[in-house]
């Protein structure tokens, strides 16, 4: 506190005003629920409207930060049985402290080994006072909670190196980078080399006797099933996270008009009938299953109806990089698909912070943002009509339809095919 009595008086006035405001806000909220929410919304909008080049912008930001804190404290107070103490005035001229969200941001970015300088420039660009940001970054290193996080990180790093060494061993096989195309491996070889060996393979002759190969086409879908409803994904182009947000893109449409849309629409990623459609569980689509002949080795025919899906869409659909939770087969009936595959042992380099998804676009990776991906080896294979991709456990894949495409996927292995994962759910990192 300053030793100057004139400043005390000013401080006392600011404190009295903050206290009064706090009490008035609480009373207003009591009489009119939602009042503070509306004031917060208004303040946030006002703040957004202030141009970046405004003189003294950091000061203006600090005023808004303080206003929001007073509003939120007044609101939080309503949940408590007693009126909490009103916010106390700071010394005149003091900057708003670095918020908890920013402190968490500093901790996470230090754990990712971002340099203090790069963090400082991000924080100052966001309007935070440089001296405060610098002090907060420096203090983090000795924060006990951060030191605990560093210890846990050592344990995680050990696991990462174990996994990286196993990957190095896998990748040292002379033909690791080539996805094999095989005619008819025996069941024993298939199970040992590909299922337990966790090696992707394309089977080239599974579909020799499939009626689907002669019958299935967009026109045939329309003729036989055009009157039925299906669930598609739509409006994907407007959403960079369309796969993670797939529930928001669900639409029920009639298959006939959807076939017309695909045939007339040309290459696009905007709409796609994906495995999420449960069409094969509905009796109307049962004839499609009659078109499936001999199955690959180690499949349980009796489970086919429960554990299969068909996919239909234009050229240009992209299923972004993700891994499935089980093993599956994916047979191309019409058109080609390009599969880009990454070993599960490379997971620590894929920024898998949310669910089973990686934010990296394998076709066009942003290495400035995702530098670790530069060390990843991607396997690349085009699956032709009649061919079947076997996707071993937890292999990452990004899939591009090169033509109008109709495919059939199935996970009815007669071996254990049920695995659990502890998926992270961090979306705002
Ligand atoms: O074909 C696609 O677009 C994606 C296929 C896929 O991700 C899968 O079958 O798991």
Choose one word for the global shape.
elongated
Low-confidence stretches: none
Report the portion of residues in β strands: 5-15%
Question: Helix proportion of residues, in percent?
Answer: 25-40%
The gyration radius over C-alpha positions equals 29 Å
The end-to-end span amounts to 38 Å
User: What are the secondary-structure elements, in order, as H or E?
Assistant: HHHHHHHEHEHHEEHHEEEEEEEE
Number of strands: 12
CATH level 4 superfamily of the largest domain? Cupin
Could you describe the 3D structure shown?
It is a single chain. This protein is of the alpha+beta class. It has 3 domains: 73 residues, no CATH class; 74 residues, no CATH class; 230 residues, Jelly Rolls (Sandwich), CATH 2.60.120.650. Helices cover 38% and strands 14% of the residues. The protein is built from 12 helices and 12 strands. The strands form 3 sheets. It has a 6-stranded mixed β-sheet, with no helix packed on it. Strands 6-11-8-9 form a 4-stranded antiparallel β-sheet, with no helix packed on it. A two-stranded antiparallel sheet has the order 3-4. Helix 8 links the parallel strand 1 and strand 2. Helix 5 packs antiparallel against helix 6. The longest helix is centred in the middle third of the chain and has 28 residues. It starts with a helix and ends in a 19-residue tail after the last strand. The protein binds 2-oxoglutaric acid. 2-oxoglutaric acid binds next to strand 7, strand 11 and strand 12. The site of 2-oxoglutaric acid has 11 residues, from strand 7, strand 11 and strand 12.
